[in-house]
Every structure is written in C-alpha cells, then in structure tokens.
Amino acid sequence: MFPRYRQKTIQARTGVAVLTAVAVLVAILSLFLSNERNEAKEIVDTFYRYEQAGDFGSSWELFHPLMKKKFPKDVYIQRRAHVFMQDFGVKTFDYRIDEVEQLSSWSMEDGNKPLHDVYRVRVIQTFNSAFGVFEIHQDVFVATEKGEKRILFPYRP
C-alpha cells in the first residue's frame, strides 16, 4: 500500500480535480443559459424592430407555428396595421425590452400542449397617439421550434 501521506496527497488531488471539473461544467452551463437568454432577447428585438417599421409580414415570419395557425399572415398584417396606424393614429412607436425569464414549461392557451424551456420577455411599447401618450406592457414568449427561436403571445389569463 501507499504510505499515509501519499494517500492524502492523492485524495487532495482527486478532490481538486473534481472541484475543477464541477466549476468548468457550471461555467459552461452558465454560458449556454446566458446565450439562450440573449437569443430570446434578440428575436424579440428583431420582431419589434419589424413591427416598429410597419413591416408586419416580416414580424409574422418570426412567429411560432402555433401563432401562425392562430393568425394567417394576411389577417395579421391587416389587423396590426389597422390597430396601430388607423385606430391609434400613429406611424410608429418606441419600445424597450425589460425582463427576460426562463420558464421550464408554458402553454400559449388552455388546451395546448406545454412547450418546454420557454423564455418570457416583457416588452413595453410607448405610443404617441391621437389619444395621447400611452404604454402597452406585454409578455412575449420565445420557444425553440426546429432549432429556431420563435415568438408566441399568451392567450390565457
């Protein structure tokens, strides 16, 4: 057998190696989650830049299939343009992205199968309208579909 001091040295080295491996795994996981969070924030930012420019067709393309099923492209474009430009009397709006939170599961509306690893992104839009200045606070959700981040709106209380 090994002398006692050699056993303690081996145990100490093993402990250091295990702690180092755990630290590396935590760092990799942290980078992965941070990257996922940033991707969710970026897709929401892209969506609202399109909306801000009145390019509702391009913003619709970023929808998750569940949203595309709920709103055919032509219907979405017509309704968004009508609400923002005609009803509100605005040409554009400002927005800011507030909180980003990861959820283990979420469903768009009752009866839908839950989606996993979804991000909730709080968006605040500011409108200078014919009715004065007002804000809309909306939670937008981001899920991965076929390797791509996609936008969903909530339809349940």
From TrEMBL:
Keywords: Membrane, Transmembrane, Transmembrane helix. The keyword Transmembrane helix applies. SUPFAM superfamilies: NTF2-like. The keyword Membrane applies. The chain crosses the membrane at residues 12-33. This is Uncharacterized protein. It comes from Geobacillus genomosp. 3.
